[in-house]
Amino acid sequence: MIPATDHAENTHKDIADRVCAVAQEIAQLKALRYLFKEHLDLPAAAIQISDTAGAPLQIVSQKLHLALLAAAHRSHAAVRGVAATDGGCAVFLGNEEKAFVIFVDQSVGAAIAMFKQGTQKERPLTHDLLANILRALGAKIERVIVNDLKRGTYFARLVLSAENELKQKKIIEIDARPSDCIAMATQQTAPIYVSLDVWNEVEDMTEALRKMQQEGSHAEESDEEEES
């Protein structure tokens, strides 16, 4: 028969071991939160801190694995040019490897061009108003993802982070038109991503972009020569 004192000591030791295990687990989870937020550009809210030993780390491990897969299946992109067309504007989106075109309304195309050039406006336009509302509500754009292409129509997700009065943060993902997403991301210098499925499907328009840029450069040189 085990003496009562020995049983109490064993119980205390079990509790101490349990506390140490939970503390170690929480430290690991916090490290993963930091990895998500600072190095993978992924929502820290995807990881939940829990005081339950064992299961949470497995769940977090699965979430981290899925998040890494998601990050690996997208390409970083930026607005490389905007050109007027008969029905609106052509926005060239891509990187040094590839560029493709998304056709947008004339007003949105003009807004994207102004944000890209840093043009000052006398009064806030629609996307300025949306940005001011987000700022007033303690929210900001974290990233934009062009995530789908169906029958010639692009789809995108707007990822926001919001903070309440208690400094608690949450991630909000909204379905939105790529044109509006690109305009707001350009305005707030937020990263733009393209899913690899879309990236691999779109036609490379790098050569057309290069010709457009060359023509624009030649036009500027002609204007300078006329002024001189």
What is this structure, in a nutshell?
50% of the residues lie in helices and 25% in strands.
Q: If you had to describe this structure to a student in words, what would you say it looks like?
A:
There is one protein chain. The chain has 228 residues and is an alpha+beta fold. The chain has two domains: 69 residues; 154 residues, Bifunctional nuclease domain, CATH 3.10.690.10. The protein is built from seven helices and seven strands; from the N terminus they run H-H-E-E-E-H-H-E-E-E-H-E-H-H. Strands 3-2-1-7-4-5-6 form a seven-stranded mixed beta sheet. Helix 1 packs parallel to helix 2 and helix 3 runs parallel beside helix 5. The chain is globular, with a radius of gyration of 25 Å.
Which keywords apply here?
alpha+beta; Bifunctional nuclease domain; 7-stranded mixed sheet; 7 helices
Query: What's the CATH H-level homologous superfamily of the largest domain?
Result: Bifunctional nuclease domain
Tell me, rounded to a whole number, the average pLDDT. 76
* Uncertain residue ranges: 38-56
Largest sheet: 7 strands, mixed
Approximate helicity band: 40-55%
